[in-house]
Amino acid sequence: MLVSRRSLLRAAAAAPALALPGVLRAQSQTTLRFVPVIDLAFVDPIYATAQVTRNHGFMVYDTLYGINSALEVSPQMLSGHVVSNDQRQWDLTLRDGLFWHDGERVLARDCVASIRRWAARDGFGAELIAATDELSAPDDRTVRFRLKRPFPLLPQALGKAAVHAPFMMPERLASLDPFKPITEVVGSGPFRFVANERAQGVQNVYARFERYQSRQEGKSDWTAGPKIVHYDRVIWTTMPDAGTAAAALQTGEQDWQETAPHDLLPVLNATGDITTRVLDPRGYTCMLRVNHLQPPFDNPAIRRALLGAINQADFMTAVAGSDPAYQFSPIGFFAPGTPMANDVGLDVFRGPRDMAKVRADLKAAGYNGEKVVLLVPTNSAAQKPLGNVAADMLRKAGMNVEFTALDFAVVLQRQQKKDPIGQGGWNAAVGNWQGIDWLNPAANTNLRGEANAAGWYTSERMAALRSQWLAAPTLAEQQRACRDVQALAFQEIPYFPIGQYKQPTAYRKSITGILDGTAVFWNVRPA
Amino acid sequence: MVSYIFRRILATMPVMAIVALFVFSLLYIAPGDPAAVIAGDQASPADVERIRQALGLNRPFLVQFGSWVWRILHGDLGTSIFTNLPVGSLIAQRIEPTLSLMVITLVLTLLIAVPLGVVAAWKAGTWLDRTIMAFAVFGFSLPVFVVGYVLAYVFALHLEWLPVQGYTPLAEGFWPWLVNLILPAVALGCVYIALIARITRAAMLEVLQQDYIRTARAKGLGQNSILFVHALKNAAVPIVTVIGIGIALLIGGAVVTESVFAIPGLGRLTIDAILRRDYPVIQGIVLLFSFLYVLVNLMVDVTYTLVDPRIRY
């Protein structure tokens, strides 16, 4: 059969196009392609509270201490620390050979400025600074805390991985206002941020930092131990649709999707090329936040009466499906499986719900049919189903619910209002947090009892218990303090804990070495 | 003609001024606070207020509006609250994918819809006409994102012929650019094809009844010449009108399509800005789209003169 020249030319022209999808799908040995849960809007992890910015922070910055998946803290940028006999002076010594991405050496005064900037935005950091007489850099490698009182949790504070993590920056950047975003990204972390390849809302690119001095000893575990980088480049591609991202993972156009939707797990697992796994067993802890300033939830007896209505499994099934591997209940006020978690008061969540009793208890507590404005963000994949279940639960408990569907930005704005509902206020709202935000009384901002967050929970007793916890010198005493915190919380109900769900990640089997914890990119390498 | 075009462009200025006032006012009074979004769920009111002050959002309406208008008049669309980047550069980064998608969709639509409409009119009342109109109803009825997902499943996931997501700039090669746009353009074009096909059919049916068409047949002209030279040209005015109106459909549809196929265009930028209440970006994009739409209408009016010599300005 003769092949005409025209048809041959056509075929030749089409061949590259046919090969193109294959080219796009080919796995690279030098570049890792990652889909973060949302877009990296801000590159300043002290200014912004988004988890994606915190993950970006661990790419380009480093911390004085690291934390492993067992929540044990160890020196990271430090070679060690020395604590005075009276526990009121800590000298932290920086490791040798640490450099910023701009080529300057990391100095102690950079760390001093960074700690101050971080503490201005972080509750745990604020506690540390409040306990500090003087924070100084007596020489280039020593960071000195002279404390007003012992602060045994100093390494935990400076090694936390939850938002806001205490990232170290050059002094010239760390001296800037913490309420204004830094736009120049210079850290000492294992990756450099390639600013000229950033396409806002689309793509962020990181390159290996050749001068990074990893720790040599220990085991790589979350943010602790060595941080060995195996890829030259990591490209974060923003994809607003999780289904599209999952499809891109299946076709090989992406290597790793940070959060795999629960309903797509069967599809992803069936491909044979993809691994799904929960990196962080602390998962996400969820709450029904209530407004302590406005009726009916200004009445603690009403809050206590409602405990009997809460079926945490219902809430978690709505978010994560019925697979028990991805949900856990009952939970209290600290993330399950963490050192401060305990069973105090959890019996109230066990057993079948008796709504008739709840209705009677509410009436006895003084509930008279006052309207409950429930704020539900319709554009939040997790909070929308939580809100649906909350509305149903409150109605079954006999409450007069006004389901107020808003987008997330409006919910955040409206939650800040303290006015009565007739003037645009609110009574209840759902929320979900990373489990590591609920590790202890200092990290959990909703437990502070200082009316510092929406809900305006105020409790001198709770603030006193937190101080007690901060001063507790041993783990056993810290845990005892947290049992007291939880007992008090079940009396005063700062918010209602409504369960824990676990969020799997998904990645192609062509990559390996992904560590437990949050998404970190050292140790990850081609399989 | 030139003076007409010049007068029309001048006339856009009061239109743009009204759009500017309207969109600024609407955003000012709309619920949502970018400072609260930035500060996050765990922020105290003091934190939120500090951020608001740092962003200048606590200034009075007239001060903010005046400042914004002054910058616009100097060609400055402002700075994104979230990224601290000039709005102009954000738009410049994202305009190529959206324009590319719209152009490919438009070309695809015209190549498919117009011939379909002509054939449907020519074979009016037959199974072919009914089949084409049934496809048109189908095209109207299916949401863009449903079509998009089905196309991605079949052609990207199952057959592996095309990529499931992304965009390659034209500068990196014509074929890579085109390959990324095929599925999104087909998804976006479905509604547009349905619309244009129906309008073409309706306009052609009317024209095919005319005496000059009967004369053309009597003269012995071939069917193709009658349909595509004589009839279509006379039916073109309503078709061109609907094509122009349909640009608005494309702009709206591009938002959904860009999200489904992860195309980094203006549609996604708009959605992100709205969800975050990034006011300067929203204002800049609305102004841009308003201006583009005014230009499209002008081009439609000019096109009339090309297809119908009786129309003169």
TrEMBL record, chain A:
Residues 1-26 form the signal peptide. One of its GO terms (cellular component) is ATP-binding cassette (ABC) transporter complex. It is found in: Periplasm. One of its GO terms (biological process) is peptide transport. The keyword Signal applies. Residues 72-449 form the Solute-binding protein family domain. The keyword Signal applies. Keywords: Signal. InterPro entries: Peptide/Ni-bd, SBP_5, SBP_5_dom, TAT_signal. One of its GO terms (molecular function) is peptide transmembrane transporter activity. Belongs to the bacterial solute-binding protein 5 family. This is ABC transporter substrate-binding protein.
TrEMBL record, chain B:
The chain crosses the membrane at residues 9-30, 99-122, 134-155, 175-195, 235-261, 281-307. InterPro entries: BPD_transp_1_N, MetI-like, MetI-like_sf. One of its GO terms (molecular function) is dipeptide transmembrane transporter activity. Its main location: membrane. The keyword Mitochondrion does not apply. Coiled coil: none annotated. It is found in: Cell inner membrane; Cell membrane. Gene3D superfamilies: MetI-like. Keywords: Cell inner membrane, Cell membrane, Membrane, Transmembrane, Transmembrane helix, Transport. It holds the Pfam family BPD_transp_1. Residues 95-304 form the ABC transmembrane type-1 domain. Belongs to the binding-protein-dependent transport system permease family. This is Glutathione transport system permease protein GsiC.
